[in-house]
């Protein structure tokens, strides 16, 4: 196209050269996206991180060992004892299948990488894909230059790095790629009106549905965009082709995923898409009729249709409302509801509120996670409005919605990150475009080429940073590309020379100001790069199962979690049940291969509340609850000796709250002294006698003689006590994990017979017990 | 009899005399069924010369069947260098090693107790011959001996028990003794060790060793208290161990130590030009009955271990056995992975092992690599002797994989070029 624009050999070569350069830059961006995420492997080791990735890892192991059919039918009896969990029907299988496919592919080539290695590196690989998808999407919105800038920004945006470092084997790692790619295909269809891309779009949507529950964001955002287009009078057949196949095919495909199933048509999250589907058909019909009728006839028909249509719509709406209102949560899942009403979770579902990533973010976390992009977004929005196209309208809508969602849940910062990168990429590239053009037109004596060199040299002087070079070298093709795309947009204008003249008049800034602005922009980007590298290296690379600390005498490694899990896996019976707070459930099943009572998939609140109640009960009652659950070992995490802050004592109030939510005899005020949570001598007797306190501090006083807790920075309240129903069987080197064994039940004496009779084995008993003990 | 560790070493000094008429070329050694079961190795040597200049000449030892042995007694035959004529005498040194022969009693101990074990043997040497005079010395690791069977004359001095001398015992006489004593040495037993030695002709020998370690001493009973273990290290958990030492070949590189859930960070490597020592700790201290699994891997320079024999074949010269010191390996599986395209492997080992061949597919293999698998049970450090694996290899196979890769990439480029130049649209 560019060639036909200017049938000049020089330009042709330059364009070919430009696309090769763009390709190389993209390759480098991919390498950057991959390698910036390897800090965790280099600084720590190639290991799966945190909690959820361990579950995914375990599922992947199962998949590679037993095959896909066993995977779909997998009923996991090693978790949620005695209920179990249907894994095949309750996981988003996208990530697992992706890694499994990768593993099979490698093994078919006889490359014997372990499942763990494949899992560890899945996330970095998909981040590279995501940055390429960002390039494609932004290219569709604002041209190649903006695309390259956005891709480079996304490759290292800290928010995304936090979820996709090597080892962070979680759904989000592949889902962000799927999200961006789905949006790209949508925009591509919108721009081309090609049914081919529309089909691809629904397939990509299917992959997204497989990967992450966040697919509801797509199925709400796209209808909103369509609606916005219709309202602003931008309806076209391309819009119809982009939307209608997506809804039909996408919904059908989504219903194939077991975890979604009929939710794809039953829950309120999907209603918006169906509503807009109806609207777009009505609009399409209206446009069609408008086309074949004369204006006068059309008015008559309109009046007729509107009156009938209104009646039908009212009836439909009434039916829908009645349907929705009949379900207790109004058809919305808890997490989605807390999105619409940020205070919902803290009011009704403590289990959602207890997860730190479901809390609203603070201002510093915005700066930490998207850094300078936060300041570039408004500029990007403005750039999107001049000129406003369907695609740029989509970008604007995307950013507005994701800013709102990220404000509700810190976890959804991840959805904001691509939008922020796209808009900042647009803003940066437009700004560079304007400034370099003004520089160029004020240096008529210099040729194009030398001017680029000069600018390159100047920026090299400013930032001698390797990573900057990508940004910098982008500027050259971007400049050309955007110019070219500008040309494309203004094709109706007859003669290029006149257009150049107009442009020159229109947007020329003072020479010095331009130079300074370019330098400032480069500095800004440099700051961003430095921040991202720092964030990747320092803030987001810790695997959280291995902790390190630097002190005067070198590096200390705290490997207590794996010590405890290894001990459990080798020295307990394979069918023993281990009770712990749900945070450690996934890790225990994956690393220690022992059955757990509750885990991080918090699907059964009552069960979790039972464990919470046991932890906050006195020893004997706790023993009875655990014994009724067939528990052999109790695992607690204790940071008091080394000062590890996220231990069970600090999480204890959540156990009390969640336990108390189901079993009313556990009351939060009993554990608080004047509304303050404390474990020192001022603590309440209930607190000092609960199981969690005892298991955490058992014989703690013998370590230093004072029992000084380094996390709470106080001496503990009750120092000398004995355990009657539990015995310590293992404590790790730094005391971070302590494992206790339930003592076997005592021989029944006749007098005690009555009491022990009431111990039967179900959670309902403990509920009954709770109510019985309740004095009120 | 040396009882200081859990590997029991029995040194026999035999002075044999041929009383018969015909020259005897073999001497039979008898073992009771219990001993024979736990017997790891029997070595014999003929001694000659006087005190200062004793020379040992190793002798051939084979297991044998004798018709007149009572109650399933097992025999080994030592072939003498020169047959003994009538009335001649010869002195033999025999070393045999028993594993799993110390029986902990009490079977379960708590953290603060020390480990006591039983040792059962005969005060009188079990022998198919008439024994003129015999003395048995038993060396215990500490002075604490709870009890021992008294078979007069027997006495105890320090860490040594002395039975005998007994005179003129008839063949196959047996006098059971039981020694109950303290032994706090780590009873480190590797239940299964799989060593994989992978040869790459590009200059590396990669060794991967998978251990399944168990503390085979008295089982740990009751609670494990970390505070006691940390504050009173000499009074609690005396029979437990947390350090292990592996002796690796010199010039070892890229050593790793991990288990199935990741790297274990507690290890220490000391290298010098003669040997490398890897001192490492399992994730947790091992008490009686506790288990642990881990993997140690390292790379070695090829030229130290691979040689070319005069007939043009290549051979790998490597150490058999387990690099850990003072450990018994119940089952050792040693796999030598030869490079792809090697033929006719033969293994030369100084003792009896089970052998078979396997095929392994590694990075981009097409026909697979030949694996020589050697299996042996009951391996003690005395088995750490060199063995050889001979094979023929054509160096052209070294280039197979790089060539394959370059052809694949070339084909990919050709495919993309042809795709870009072909017009696949239906409409013209």
Could you describe the 3D structure shown?
The complex is a heterodimer of chains A (776) and B (428). Chain A is mainly α. Helix content of chain A is 65%, strand content 5%. In chain A, helix 29 links the parallel strand 5 and strand 6. Chain A is globular and about 95 Å long. The N and C termini of chain A lie far apart (82 Å). Chain B is mainly beta and 428 residues long. In chain B, strand 15 and strand 16 form a beta hairpin. Chain B is globular, with a radius of gyration of 28 Å. Chain B starts with 7 loop residues before the first strand and ends in a 7-residue tail after the last helix. Classes of the chains: A mainly alpha (776), B mainly beta (428). At the A-B interface, helix 28 and strand 10 of A face helix 2, strand 20 and strand 23 of B.
Write the layout of secondary structure elements.
The complex is a heterodimer of chains A (776) and B (428).
Chain A lengths: L1 H4 L3 H27 L3 H5 L8 H21 L2 E2 L8 E2 H4 L3 H15 L6 H28 L1 H12 L2 H7 L6 H22 L2 H17 L3 H17 L5 H18 L8 H4 L4 H22 L2 H32 L7 H7 L3 H5 L1 H4 L9 H8 L2 H12 L5 H19 L4 H29 L6 H15 L3 H24 L6 H11 L4 H29 L7 E5 L2 E5 L1 H12 L5 E3 L5 H8 L2 E2 L8 H12 L2 H10 L4 E5 L10 H15 L22 H5 L1 H7 L3 H4 L3 E2 L4 E2 L10 E6 L5 E6 L10 H5 L5 H11 L3
Chain B lengths: L7 E10 L6 E8 L1 H6 E10 L6 E10 L9 E11 L4 E10 L3 E3 L3 E2 L6 E7 L8 E9 L5 E4 L5 E4 L2 E10 L6 E7 L5 E13 L3 E12 L3 E2 L5 H6 L12 E5 L4 E7 L2 E2 L3 E5 L4 E5 L10 E11 L4 E3 L5 E6 L8 E10 L5 E6 L5 E7 L8 E11 L6 E7 L7 H22 L7
Parallel strand pairs in B: 8-17, 15-26
Antiparallel strand pairs in B: 1-6, 2-5, 3-4, 3-6, 4-5, 7-9, 9-14, 10-13, 11-14, 12-13, 15-16, 16-23, 18-22, 19-20, 19-23, 21-22, 24-25, 25-30, 26-29, 27-30, 28-29
């Amino acid at each position: 196209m560019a060639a036909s624009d200017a049938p000049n050999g020089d330009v042709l070569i330059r364009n070919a050269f430009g696309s090769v350069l763009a390709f190389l830059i993209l390759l480098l961006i991919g390498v950057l996206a991959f390698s910036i995420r390897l800090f965790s492997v280099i600084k720590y080791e190639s290991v799966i991180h945190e909690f959820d990735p361990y579950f995914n890892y375990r599922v992947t192991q199962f998949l590679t060992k037993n095959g896909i059919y066993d995977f779909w039918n997998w009923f996991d009896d090693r978790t949620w004892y005695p209920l179990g969990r249907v894994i095949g029907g309750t996981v988003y299988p996208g990530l697992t299948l992706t890694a499994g496919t990768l593993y099979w592919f490698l093994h078919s080539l006889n490359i014997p990488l372990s499942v763990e290695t494949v899992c560890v590196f899945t996330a970095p690989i998909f981040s590279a894909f995501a940055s390429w998808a960002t390039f494609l999407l932004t290219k569709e919105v604002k041209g190649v230059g903006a695309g390259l800038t956005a891709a480079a920004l996304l490759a290292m945006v800290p928010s995304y790095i936090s979820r996709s470092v090597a080892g962070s084997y979680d759904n989000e790692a592949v889902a962000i790629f799927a999200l961006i790619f789905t949006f790209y295909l949508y925009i591509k269809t919108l721009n081309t009106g090609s049914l081919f891309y529309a089909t691809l779009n629904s397939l990509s949507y299917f992959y997204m549905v497989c990967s992450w529950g966040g697919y509801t964001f797509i199925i709400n955002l796209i209808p909103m965009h369509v609606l916005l287009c219709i309202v602003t009078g931008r309806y076209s057949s391309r819009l119809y082709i982009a939307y209608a196949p997506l809804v039909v095919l996408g919904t059908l495909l989504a219903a194939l995923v077991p975890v979604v199933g009929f939710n794809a048509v039953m829950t309120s999250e999907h209603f918006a898409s169906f509503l807009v589907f109806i609207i777009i058909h009505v609009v399409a019909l209206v446009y069609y009729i408008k086309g074949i009728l004369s204006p006068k006839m059309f008015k008559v028909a309109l009046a007729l249709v509107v009156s009938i249509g209104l009646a039908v719509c009212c009836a439909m709406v009434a039916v829908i409302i009645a349907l929705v209102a009949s379900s207790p949560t109004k058809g919305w899942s808890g997490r989605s509801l807390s999105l619409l009403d940020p205070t919902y979770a803290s009011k009704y579902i403590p289990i959602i509120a207890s997860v730190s990533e479901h809390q609203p973010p603070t201002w510093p976390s915005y700066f930490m996670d998207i850094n300078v992009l936060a300041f570039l977004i408004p500029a990007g929005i403005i750039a999107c409005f001049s000129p406003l196209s369907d695609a740029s309208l989509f970008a604007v809508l995307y950013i507005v919605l994701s800013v709102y969602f990220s404000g509700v849940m810190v976890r959804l910062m991840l959805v904001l990150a691509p939008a922020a990168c796209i808009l900042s990429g647009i803003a940066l590239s437009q700004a560079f475009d304007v400034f370099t053009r003004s520089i160029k037109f004020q240096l008529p004596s210099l040729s194009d080429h030398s001017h680029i060199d000069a600018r390159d040299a100047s920026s090299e002087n400013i930032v001698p940073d390797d990573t900057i070079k990508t940004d910098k070298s982008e500027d050259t093709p971007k400049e050309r590309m955007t110019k070219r795309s500008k040309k494309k947009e203004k094709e109706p204008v007859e003669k290029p020379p006149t257009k150049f003249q107009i442009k020159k008049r229109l947007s020329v800034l003072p020479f010095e100001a331009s130079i300074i602005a370019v330098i400032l922009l480069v500095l800004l980007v440099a700051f961003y790069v430095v921040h991202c590298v720092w964030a990747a290296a320092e803030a987001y690379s810790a695997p959280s199962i291995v902790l390190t600390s630097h002190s005067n005498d070198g590096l200390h490694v705290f490997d207590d979690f794996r010590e405890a899990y290894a001990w459990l896996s080798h020295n307990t019976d394979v069918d023993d049940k281990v009770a712990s707070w749900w945070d450690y459930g996934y890790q225990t099943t994956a690393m220690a291969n022992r059955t757990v009572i509750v885990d991080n998939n918090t699907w059964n609140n009552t069960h979790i509340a039972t464990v919470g109640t046991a932890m906050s009960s006195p020893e004997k009652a706790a023993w009875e609850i655990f014994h009724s659950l067939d528990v052999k070992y109790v695992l607690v995490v204790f940071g008091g000796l080394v000062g590890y802050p996220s231990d069970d004592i600090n999480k204890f109030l959540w156990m009390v709250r969640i336990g108390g939510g189901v079993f009313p005899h556990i009351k939060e005020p009993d554990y608080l002294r004047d509304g303050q949570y404390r474990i020192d001598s001022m603590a309440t007797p209930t607190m000092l006698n609960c199981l969690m306190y005892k298991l955490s501090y058992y014989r703690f006083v013998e370590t230093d003689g004072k029992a000084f807790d380094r996390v709470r920075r106080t001496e503990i309240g009750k120092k000398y006590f004995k355990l009657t129903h539990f015995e310590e069987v293992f404590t790790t080197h730094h005391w971070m994990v302590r494992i206790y064994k339930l003592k076997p039940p005592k021989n029944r004496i006749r007098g005690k017979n009555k009491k022990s009779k009431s111990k039967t084995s179900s959670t309902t008993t403990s509920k009954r017990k709770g109510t019985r003990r309740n004095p009120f | 009899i040396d009882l200081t560790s859990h590997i029991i070493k029995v040194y026999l000094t035999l002075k044999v005399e041929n009383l018969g008429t015909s020259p005897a070329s073999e001497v039979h050694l008898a073992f009771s069924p219990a001993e024979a079961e736990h017997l790891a190795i029997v070595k014999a040597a003929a001694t000659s010369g006087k005190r200062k200049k004793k020379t040992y000449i190793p002798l051939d030892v084979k297991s044998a069947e004798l018709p007149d042995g009572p109650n399933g007694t097992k025999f080994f035959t030592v072939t003498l260098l020169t047959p003994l004529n009538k009335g001649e005498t010869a002195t033999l040194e025999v070393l045999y090693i028993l594993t799993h022969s110390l029986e902990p009693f009490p079977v379960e101990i708590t953290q603060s107790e020390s480990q006591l074990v039983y040792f059962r043997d005969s005060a009188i040497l079990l022998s198919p011959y008439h024994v003129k005079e015999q003395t048995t010395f038993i060396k215990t690791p500490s002075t604490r001996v709870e009890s021992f069977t008294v078979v007069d004359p027997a006495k105890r001095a320090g860490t040594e028990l002395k039975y005998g001398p007994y005179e003129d015992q008839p063949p196959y006489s047996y006098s059971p003794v039981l020694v109950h004593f303290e032994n706090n040495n780590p009873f480190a037993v590797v239940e299964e060790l799989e060593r994989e030695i992978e040869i790459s002709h590009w200059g590396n020998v990669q060794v991967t060793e998978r251990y399944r370690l168990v503390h085979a001493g008295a089982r740990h009973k009751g609670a494990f208290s970390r505070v006691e273990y940390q504050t009173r290290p000499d009074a609690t958990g005396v029979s437990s161990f947390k350090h292990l030492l592996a002796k690796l070949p010199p010039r070892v590189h890229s050593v790793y130590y991990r288990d199935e859930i990741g790297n274990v960070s507690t290890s220490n490597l000391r290298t010098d030009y003669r040997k490398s020592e890897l001192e490492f700790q399992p994730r947790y201290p091992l008490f009686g009955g506790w288990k642990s699994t881990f993997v140690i891997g390292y790379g070695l320079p090829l030229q130290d271990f691979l040689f070319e024999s005069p007939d043009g074949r290549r051979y790998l010269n490597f150490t058999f056995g387990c690099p850990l010191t003072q450990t018994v390996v119940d089952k050792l599986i040693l796999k030598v992975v030869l490079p792809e395209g090697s033929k006719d492997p033969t293994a030369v080992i100084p003792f009896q092992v089970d052998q078979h061949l396997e095929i392994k597919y590694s990075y981009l293999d097409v026909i697979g690599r030949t694996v020589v698998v050697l299996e042996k049970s009951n391996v003690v450090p005395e088995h750490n002797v060199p063995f050889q694996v001979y094979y023929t290899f054509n160096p052209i196979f070294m280039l197979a994989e790089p060539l394959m890769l370059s052809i694949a990439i070339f084909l990919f480029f050709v495919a993309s070029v042809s795709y870009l130049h072909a017009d696949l649209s239906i409409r013209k």
